């Protein structure tokens, strides 16, 4: 409904904005006051000057830098792998003709509705068999290529690459992989960027499987936060300083690429 | 040849040199390549490449998706220890034990209660929010980004932050309630209150995300529909009820189904909301969920057999709710369309 919105609309949106930001501010606020002030409930509404000293204590309590490095590594590797394999598969589903294309695509879509988290027990047994439990490999492998990614890239490439271009390249004797690399891959770039962001975020925020697969000595950042909370649950200044610190990387990503995230969600919705 | 292909960017320019260039590249120097052989190779390339490109997904899904789901059934009918591995075949004993466990019923009810408290208000608010954003706003991107902010905060961090906001004694929420004359609520100790608290975390993270999906669907509604409805004298609310809602029904189904699958597997939020050392969802598991029970059976009690049985039961619950939701939304949408 396109009408010039009034104060009511802006007022309500502002309320939502405050609601979105307030818990993050609260986290920073308590994290910036001393342990004593944080323990007594609602602190002064302006930040205190103790954020860094609290953060240093948090960093000393858990293997913070190692966890951050692990999360960065796992998220980056997975995101790159997902983008590569999903673009390849999405391109095949969108532009190449082969037997069983339709049913196979339906199968891919159907797997999105399968709650694979429920397979954690065998997945754990499998990873133990390979000797991967406790290593980052165990949290990277299950995510290397996703159904959502394949579908997302397929939807994008259907329109983004003209059939004539693929056909012309083929007539000229171009091999399939070169057509992919020189025709489809450049066209896929905008969608690939969005898929990369999403996968990175998903892997970064994942908790259930890393908690099972990784030991406390080699955690991702989420598993490390879990340790922080369990050890010092009364000292909210320390816990929230650590939590705030651990949230900063994704906040930075949000500031840099939030626009792409928004358009990615909206694109995925219309076509999905 | 390699120089001309090195200039990337356009697809078509790079194609012609290949024809002349490839013989020298593929065959040993001096020998002319046999055309049949090349033709056969090309045909093979055209026929097999698609399968090659899609195979990584299917291979991986087979290993980390399909096999584990099926194998869960195998584990669930055995005695199976986390440390010792497979034991005797026990038939349906694990299922019987899980179903007879009082915590199973309790945590199943908790899961459903938290799910309803998080999904119903979330969808309603997301629709309202999407309708607000579906205006000619100044600073469109800013407002859209603002509601997506919670989405980048991990469930673990959210649970820690809200655990503090909902502190039973010193939390901000109880403090604010005190100002309007409401006694402090035991957000961690009281069963229903704790469900509300956990549901709030889910709502906080996902409402904006779902609002954007619904907004995209709303913007795809042809504007002429509203114009003609306005000419017919339909008010804003009426237009929304009889045009917008029916038109975004497929998207609603999508949102509801995905939130069902995710919502019933909730784990991080209730686990980290718990401040007791057992981490099982409160001292009496008043907000423990089924996925937490899987973790408890498998990795705290080290009984993978019972963990697998629980996983299968949760799978059944998810299927039932998924189908029920689908039918419900279809009904509701259809009613809206007839009016």
Automatic annotation (TrEMBL), chain A:
Residues 68-257 form the ABC transmembrane type-1 domain. It is found in: Cell membrane. CDD domains: TM_PBP2. Its main location: membrane. The chain crosses the membrane at residues 7-26, 72-93, 105-127, 139-158, 179-201, 236-257. InterPro entries: MetI-like, MetI-like_sf. It is a multi-pass membrane protein. Keywords: Cell membrane, Membrane, Transmembrane, Transmembrane helix, Transport. Belongs to the binding-protein-dependent transport system permease family. This is Carbohydrate ABC transporter permease.
TrEMBL record, chain B:
It is a multi-pass membrane protein. SUPFAM superfamilies: MetI-like. Residues 1-34 are annotated as: Disordered. It comes from the Bacteria. Residues 108-325 form the ABC transmembrane type-1 domain. CDD domains: TM_PBP2. The chain crosses the membrane at residues 50-71, 112-133, 145-166, 206-226, 247-268, 309-329. Residues 1-25 have a biased composition (Polar residues). It is found in: Cell membrane. Keywords: Cell membrane, Membrane, Transmembrane, Transmembrane helix, Transport. Belongs to the binding-protein-dependent transport system permease family. PANTHER family: ABC TRANSPORTER PERMEASE PROTEIN (PTHR30193), INNER MEMBRANE ABC TRANSPORTER PERMEASE PROTEIN YCJO (PTHR30193:SF37). This is Sugar ABC transporter permease. It comes from Nocardioides pini.
């Amino acid at each position: 409904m396109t009408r010039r919105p009034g104060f009511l609309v802006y007022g309500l949106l502002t309320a939502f904005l405050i609601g979105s930001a307030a818990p993050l501010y609260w986290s920073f606020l308590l994290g910036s006051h001393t342990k004593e002030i944080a323990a007594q409930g609602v602190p002064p509404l302006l930040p205190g000057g103790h954020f860094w000293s609290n953060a240093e204590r948090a960093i000393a309590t858990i293997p913070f830098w190692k966890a951050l490095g692990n999360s960065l590594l796992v998220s980056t590797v997975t995101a790159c792998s997902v983008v590569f394999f999903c673009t390849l598969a999405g391109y095949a589903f969108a532009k190449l003709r082969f037997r069983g294309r339709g049913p196979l695509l339906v199968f891919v879509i159907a797997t999105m509705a399968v709650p694979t988290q429920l397979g954690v027990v065998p997945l754990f047994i499998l990873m133990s068999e390979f000797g991967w439990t406790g290593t980052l490999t165990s949290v990277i492998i299950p995510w290397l290529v996703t159904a959502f990614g394949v579908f997302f890239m397929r939807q994008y490439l259907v329109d983004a690459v003209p059939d004539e271009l693929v056909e012309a390249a083929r007539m000229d004797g171009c091999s399939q992989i070169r057509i992919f690399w020189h025709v489809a891959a450049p066209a896929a770039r905008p969608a690939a960027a969005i898929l990369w962001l999403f996968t990175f975020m998903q892997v970064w925020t994942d908790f259930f499987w890393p908690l099972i697969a990784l030991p406390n000595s080699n955690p991702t950042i989420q598993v490390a936060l879990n340790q922080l909370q369990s050890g010092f649950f009364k000292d909210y200044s320390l816990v929230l300083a650590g939590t705030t610190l651990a949230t900063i990387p994704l906040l930075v990503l949000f500031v840099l690429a939030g626009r792409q995230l928004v358009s990615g969600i909206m694109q995925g919705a219309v076509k999905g | 040849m390699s120089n001309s292909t090195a200039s990337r960017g356009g697809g078509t320019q790079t194609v012609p040199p290949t024809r002349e260039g490839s013989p020298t590249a593929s065959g040993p120097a001096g020998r002319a390549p046999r055309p049949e052989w090349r033709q056969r190779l090309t045909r093979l390339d055209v026929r097999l490449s698609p399968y090659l490109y899609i195979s990584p997904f299917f291979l991986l899904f087979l290993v980390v998706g399909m096999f584990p789901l099926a194998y869960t059934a195998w584990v669930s009918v055995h005695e199976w220890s986390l440390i010792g591995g497979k034991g005797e075949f026990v038939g349906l004993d694990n299922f019987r034990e899980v179903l007879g466990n009082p915590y199973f019923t309790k945590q199943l009810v908790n899961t459903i209660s938290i799910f309803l408290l998080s999904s119903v208000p979330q969808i309603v608010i997301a629709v309202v929010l999407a309708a607000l954003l579906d205006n000619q706003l100044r600073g469109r991107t800013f407002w859209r980004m603002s509601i997506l902010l919670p989405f980048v905060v991990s469930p673990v961090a959210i649970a820690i932050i809200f655990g503090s906001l909902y502190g039973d004694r010193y939390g901000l929420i109880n403090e604010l309630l005190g100002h309007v004359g409401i006694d402090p609520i035991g957000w961690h100790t009281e069963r229903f209150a704790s469900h509300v608290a956990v549901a709030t975390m889910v709502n906080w993270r996902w409402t904006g995300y779902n609002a954007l999906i619904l907004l995209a669907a709303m913007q795809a509604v042809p504007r002429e529909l509203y114009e003609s409805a306005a000419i017919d004298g339909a008010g804003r609310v009426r237009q929304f009820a009889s045009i917008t809602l029916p038109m975004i029904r497929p998207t609603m189904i999508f949102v509801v189904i995905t939130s069902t699958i995710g919502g019933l597997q909730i784990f991080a939020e209730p686990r980290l909301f718990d401040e007791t050392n057992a981490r099982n969802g409160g001292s009496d598991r008043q907000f423990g969920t089924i996925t937490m029970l899987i973790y408890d059976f498998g990795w705290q009690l080290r009984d993978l057999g019972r963990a697998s049985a629980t996983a299968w039961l949760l799978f059944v619950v998810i299927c039932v709710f998924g189908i029920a939701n689908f039918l419900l939304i279809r009904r509701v949408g259809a009613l809206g369309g007839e009016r």
